[in-house]
Amino acid sequence: MGHAEAAPGRLGLSGGADTSCRIVIVRYSIAPAIALMACGRIGFDPAPTMGDAVGDGTVPGDTLVLPGVPFPVGFSAPGMERNPSVAWDGAQFVVGWNDNHGRTADGSIAGSLVSRAAVVQPPTVWLGGGFIQAQGPAIACNVAGGCAIVTGDFTGSSALGRALVTNGVPGAAGTLVNRASNFPAVASIGTRFLVVYNDILTPSVNSVMIDAGGAIVSTPVQLVAPLGQTQAVSATANGYVAAWQRDATIEYTTLDPAGVILSAKVSVAGSDIARPAIASAPTVSLLVWNELGSHVRGLRIAADGTALDPVPLSITQATTTARPTVTWDGISFLVAFERRLDVTTASLAAVAVDPDTGMVGPETELTPAASPVTDFVPALASDRAGTSLCVFQRNGPTMASYGLLIKR
Q: What are the pLDDT digits (tens) for 12-40?
């Protein structure tokens, strides 16, 4: 389905737990696609100032343009679409979410394709039923345009599994590894994917390599023990950087393209740290997280795992920001997050972070708070050619997956 865009507007950026679940990997592919493209940047005023101050630093760049208003990326009928995620497959954005509608089996994983012009192809169910209370999927696409969608659930099963989706048509699911896991993450180099997941039975955080057909092609590598809680991973020029939340701490390590550990685990100090997310530029990655009761922080990491900031960057000042997400758009890191007004009401905002200096631009509102409608759980991806897509969960009478295009 299409979406009529509003007149362009300009936006200045100046500067007792469940113990059994399974990961299912879904592969979506299109006809052979171009390799991932270089992306544009969001804007800042020139003349940067030094330090990690929020709102008074500036980063060189262009004006950020919002070419329209938020638009639905899910089903037209009301239902419950939760925890959306997004990736760029070389030709379009691939969006997935946990779908709990009466029209589909509870806990399905559904998705849609979104063009740079906000045209949404009709959504389809990629993985049907049996994923009660599933977390939202994590998505990564390889250079051939094939995408792996990984997800966990709390149904009592304990499996790292897979299903294939080609040109929007899902294939059969299959079990790969019998492990209880949740909150997985995935990234890709070449045609293969690295999946990072927590093994509740061991307990530990592990990684495993998946080929373009969804089959495991490596033995699991233990990254840390005991158990981690929420994982993140990104592809770098040297391989991968993987991060996870363990208790109230964020830890990370680097791996080569084959998934072999390259650097010792690094712990990031903080207070009640949660929800890591990570994105990579050619020579540096940005790890972001939420400090509960505080704000969003970040750390730039070199390709060899060296922390580039002596103290974490202050991404936000407000004490009510949460659930950060990050993408690399070719020149700047774009970080989006919730701005919580109260327990049930939130809007979305974004900043950009310069990869070379760590300078943080001022916050820019992406969606306003408009009770009883509220926006949660943002996720970002970029085509690295001037267009990014922020997807999020819009709560109102129902829960729906929405998107917002961000262009230079």
A: 333 333 333 333 444 444 332 222 222 22
169 Cβ contact partners less than 8 Å away, ≥ 6 residues apart = none
Q: How far apart are CA 81 and CA 152, in angstroms?
A: 16
Q: Do the Cβ atoms of 375 and 356 come closer than 8 Å?
A: no
User: What is the token pair recorded at 53?
Assistant: 């101050």
CA atoms within 13 A on the CB side of 114: 31
Residue 384's closest CA among 34, 35, 37, 33? 37
Q: Quick one: which of 394, 382, 274, 267 has its CA closest to 326? A: 382
The overall average pLDDT reported for the chain is 76
pLDDT digits 0-9 by tens, 67-117: 789 999 998 877 788 889 999 999 999 999 888 765 555 567 888 999 999
Which residue in 1, 71, 56 sits closest to 367, CA to CA? 71
Asked whether the predicted pLDDT for residue 186 surpasses 60, the reply is: yes
Could you tell me if 171 and 150 are in contact, meaning their C-beta atoms sit under 8 angstroms apart?
A: no
Residues in Cβ contact with 42 at an 8 Å cutoff, skipping those fewer than 6 apart: 13, 61, 62, 64, 329, 332, 334, 350, 352, 361, 388, 406, 408
**Reported pTM:** 0.83
Instruction: Determine which helix (DSSP H) or strand (DSSP E) holds 130, and give its type and residue range.
Output: none
Of all residues in the chain, the percent with pLDDT exceeding 70 is 71
3-state SS track over 203-241: CEEEEEEECCCCCECCCCEEEECCCCCCEEEEECCCCEE
Can you give the pLDDT at residue 320?
A: 78
167 pLDDT band, cuts 50/70/90, is low
For residue 293, CA distances in Å to 32, 272, 304, 309, 351 come to 46, 8, 32, 22, 20
